[in-house]
Every structure is written in C-alpha cells, then in structure tokens.
Amino acid sequence: MKFLIIGAGGIGCYYGARLLEAGHAVTFIARGAHLEAMQQQGLTVEHEAMQFNAAVDAMSMDTLIAQHSCADYDLIMLALKSGATAGWLAECGPWLKHADTPVLSLQNGVDNEPLIAETIGQTRTLGGLAVRIGGHIIAPGHIEAKGPAQVVMGRWPRIAAPDPALEQLAETLNAAQIPTRVTDNIRYELWKKLLINNGVNPLSALTGLDTRSLTADPALGKAVYAMMQETAVAARADEVELTPADVDEMFALISQFDAIKTSMLVDREKGRPLELDDISGAVIRRCQQQDEPAPNTELVQRLLQLDIRPVQWQPLTA
C-alpha cells in the first residue's frame, strides 16, 4: 500500500517506519529542520522493539500538492496537532477532493473528525487514536518512541454493519506490527482516550512531571482522577456515556504505563503552542453546555494560559 503521513513527528514517524519495514511505500510530510534532516540524512527511530535508520521519502506540503495527486495514495494518516487541523483542511481541501482516499486521524481530542468529515464526507473519514505510545522528536530526523503503540480506528461517527475494507486495513497494520483493532463506535473510544489526555497532559505541562510521577503523588493523583471525572461528564454533551468503570480503567492504565513526558509538556518546554483548546477546552465547553462544573480542568487550563512557571529561590544577600 501507499501511505501518506501528514505531520511526521514522533508518532507519525514511528508508524511510518513500521510500515516501511513491512514493505509498504510511505511519504512523510514535515517541515523545517526535521524535514531537512530526513531528506539529507534519512530517518532514525529508536523503540524498545525496533531500531530503524534509513533514507525516506520526505517533503513539504507545498511540494506534495504541486507534484502529487491525492489519488496517488491508498491512505492518509493525519498526525498533526489538533489545532492545525482546520488550517490544513482549508489549505488542502481542493487537493483532497480530487480522490476517494480515506483520511485516518491519529490526533488528540474529539473535534478533528467532524472537521474532516465536513471537508471530504463521512465515508472517507476514519476516526482513530494512538494508544499507549509516547513519541517525540529528540533531534531533527531522530525519533524516540516507547510503548506498544496500538491503534484503534473506526468509521466516523460509527459503523452500522461489518466493514470488510476497514478490516482489511486493520490486517495490513497488524501485519506491520502495529497492533490495530476496529471499533464500531469510534466516538466513544476518542472520548475514552480524552479521559487520559485531560487527566495528565495539562497537569504534566503545568508541573513538569511525567505521567507516573503525577499519578503516584497522593495529591496530584487525586487531581488527575478528578479531571478524568470531569471529562466523563463532558462526554454526555456528545451523547457518549463514560462510566465510573471507564474512569477507573483509564486511571489504572496511565498509572501502570511507563513514565512518559506528555506531548503537552514537551511542547511547553520547547515553547510551542499547547493543545489546550482541543483537550481541556473541549471538556470545559461541553460541561458549560450542560451547566456542569469542571473546576479542576478550568483551574489547570487557566494557570497554563497565564504561563505561570516555578520561580527559583534565591538566598537573600546582606
């Protein structure tokens, strides 16, 4: 198959490397120093179960549109930051509409798939999430990833009948050592992942702590759990019912998973925009729609918006 990965950062590059090792054709879309390094030196991906280093097909979005048709690809994997989705669709909408190529979103949040479906239609929109993976660019052209790196995917907003094409795609990904399962209710799965994202991403960015440190701390662990509960309340606005058992399951999952830096913490350290609006903002807006409180999520989001950082103590001098 021919795969196109839009937003070839830590997660996109890991999945792309897996697909290349399985014999598929992969084009990586990136920018800046990371793109230049991939073009000149190839791509390096380090993972506990894989060491990849090879030349790859990497280009900018402008070059892709100028030199290739959307129909050249069998699947587009979208791994952009959620805040970039609307802009990307506005820029590439005409290019996307000249084909039937499906788009699989592997992004944070619960608002990407509706935007994609508005542009290319529901039949081409695949909701998805990357589960139990941490992946970051540690240097241009150099990725570090960890975790089982599973994928859950489904047609947006849900599947009403068996879907042979989607099952075939899942078989292809599984054969490439990307553990994949198909769900008939991707909206529920996206909200279930948001339990974790809203629980740890903002707090991690605020405190500078990894996920294990957050959940193991008596006070911060309670805050993580409370923000997950607020996420479950927010989901009802989208007619998704997340049960107390769902909250407990996701809290246990992130508590037991490897200690990782969240993507939001990495973004804050590097001075990049945070996905606040797409994670905590999505929870706050939907709680407000239902006249439900979300005090923990609101507090952490506001502190991040104010960009409050720890002040290093300096001894007084005489």
From TrEMBL:
InterPro entries: 6-PGluconate_DH-like_C_sf, 6PGD_dom2, ApbA, KPA_reductase, KPR-Related, KPR_N, NAD(P)-bd_dom_sf. It catalyses: (R)-pantoate + NADP(+) = 2-dehydropantoate + NADPH + H(+). SUPFAM superfamilies: 6-phosphogluconate dehydrogenase C-terminal domain-like (SSF48179), NAD(P)-binding Rossmann-fold domains (SSF51735). Signal peptide: none annotated. Residues 185-305 form the Ketopantoate reductase C-terminal domain. It comes from Marinobacterium maritimum. Keywords: NADP, Oxidoreductase, Pantothenate biosynthesis. Gene3D superfamilies: N-(1-d-carboxylethyl)-l-norvaline Dehydrogenase, domain 2 (1.10.1040.10), NAD(P)-binding Rossmann-like Domain (3.40.50.720). Pathway: Cofactor biosynthesis; (R)-pantothenate biosynthesis; (R)-pantoate from 3-methyl-2-oxobutanoate: step 2/2. PANTHER family: 2-DEHYDROPANTOATE 2-REDUCTASE (PTHR21708:SF26), PROBABLE 2-DEHYDROPANTOATE 2-REDUCTASE (PTHR21708). Its EC number is 1.1.1.169. This is 2-dehydropantoate 2-reductase. Belongs to the ketopantoate reductase family. It is an enzyme of class 1 (oxidoreductase). Catalyzes the NADPH-dependent reduction of ketopantoate into pantoic acid. Residues 4-157 form the Ketopantoate reductase N-terminal domain.
